[in-house]
Fold this sequence. Notes:
The protein is an alpha/beta fold. It is built from 28 helices and 22 strands. The longest helix is centred in the N-terminal third of the chain and has 21 residues.
Amino acid sequence: xxxxxxxxxxxxxxxxxxxxDREEDVYRVTEELYELQESRKQLSGRSNSSYYRLTIxxxxxxxxxxxxxxxxxxxxxxxxxxETSLASFSSNSSKxxxxxKLKTSTLLYVDLRDLEPTEPKEKSLEWALxxxxxxxxxxxxxxxxxxxxxxxxxxxxxxEFLLPELRKILGISSEQFLLVAFDEVGALDxxxxxxxxxxxxxxxxxxxxxxxxxxxxxxxxxxxxxIVVGKSTGLRIKNSVAFGPRVLLHFISLSPLxxxxxxxxxxxxxxxxxxxxxxxxxxxxxxxxxxELAEALLECTGxxxxxxxxxxxxxxxxxxxxxxxxxxxxxxxxCMNEDSFQRICAEPFIQxxxxxxxxxxxxFGILLMMALFHIPFKVxxxxxxxxxxxxxxxxxxxxxxxxxxxxxxxxxxKVFVGNxxxxxxxxxxxxxxxxxxxxxxxxxxxxxxxxxxxGIVAIRLILMLSSKVRNEFRELLCQLSAxxxxxxxxxxxxxxxxxxxxxxxxxxxxxxxxxxxxxxxxEWNKIIQEALYFDKVYIPxxxxxxxxxxxxxxxxxxxxxxxxxxxxxxxxxxxxxxxxSDIIExxxxxxxxxxxxxxxxxxxxxxxxxxxxxxxxxxxxxxxxGDQSRCYxxxxxxESESFTIPSNCELVILCERDVEMLIDKEILNGLExxxxxxxxxxxxxxxxxxxxxxxxxxxxx
Length: 701
């Protein structure tokens, strides 16, 4: 086996990538282009409507999202989807007419990296852009182009002169749609000083304001449309171009690829010059399917197209060099989990992140929480008065995952996590978040209130178990339970939050990957022996009625006693309260089967505890507790003897005052405001609440 990492993970581009359908992205961009068509009447003064802003589909910053591939192939996709996913778009006659014309339109591709000061008006951005459009049109159809001085004499600086010339070169009529795709908009970042640009009242220069101002004038002409894409460090959504009355930019975050998209990509991609050799046939064997390869790539890259392509290149070079395909999914995953693979795969995309600045550290911790707990954000959610979450994600080189109009989630591919773990000055809290992201399955869970609440509780438990300073909550549990007091605490080091398949789901994963195995409800002995490691805190991935929300296992240092702890996290954000019947249900689904299947085998060694963490206990429960947490031991009965605690088991019910010891009251109030049933999901879950959560975590380190 070769030892040179550069040879082991070569990145030579040896295959021709297949183009993958992007139905959701096609639909959304088509909607934006239609909106421009409708707004054009207002822009040209043909309507009395007060809404007259130009609409441009705009995808800045997004590394490796397939921006160039998407815009170049957009018209092909329109034709492909016009009778399927776009059928609902053309539901009325106006939209149908628009879509029919769009299918027959022409695309002009313009690379802004070729933009440069141009004679005879070298300081004019408008002239440089006009000449670049002219030159790009000539190049696209294979015509030679005139010198700038000659073009300047022939085409005055007005849209009504430029656009007919472009149509003449491209061979299209004035009635046909012309779609201009501007790529590499980040080239404008380097244009300071090259052109005479408009200055704000305080002397600042934003090349994008001038650029979009020029496009705005072009858009007043009929039947022309624009898409703008590219990575940019100079453009923030706070720029006046995005907020003023002149232009309305619709920010488009192209969706990452799904598992089925990646399968399609692998099946369509071939070796360069050898179309008969599909990539999937070279990488996969009879015992390792293309579906499994797609799952492995999705797990590693998060579905980011640029990362998928680079990872496939690296795997392909590796397989061709050794002359043998992958035999198992685990073998492929093992390769992609190597530090050297992740470093080389992420190298062109990852941004240098420094966490030495306290503000940046705070932002990084907030974004890590949002990625781990799948907390969405709106395009204009502000971190502070002048800085937006949207921009923070961009500037840290992370990925925005669109979930609906102007709403996103933070996606941190696992190949990035491995690189971030080596950042200097990471707090313990950030290390736990990064480690948890690395362990979390890509398809872990959907956005939900309870997932956020139990995630916060779980990380609190990690910090509680590992804290080497006085910890009131840990002392409370030691006072309530003599068995808990016997456990070896604090644990040696805080380990990340781990995710495991739940209990009671019928299908199971490969035996060779036990952490991803699914267990039946009668397999608690296997769960505790095989899936749970000492001193690690787990959240079952799938929401079922057969397991607690959080599980961990502790060991006594003296006589090898084992304590299995389950935590029932019951965040009640409306009038519904957590009563005795709910508590009994939790005890029956965890304490009873664990007692019967596990504890009975070694009654002197094994113990089990269930902790109920509820934000809103029923009034009769609170009255019996007397505003104090209580531990019910083996043989004790609750709720008029309707439930008896099994042998070697304990049931701990935290009063609401002690829940506030685990999670600050201010944070609980913030969660209640965000999760109220009469609001949209995560309606008020903003950066301020996340900042408070981060601060409270840091105080427990």
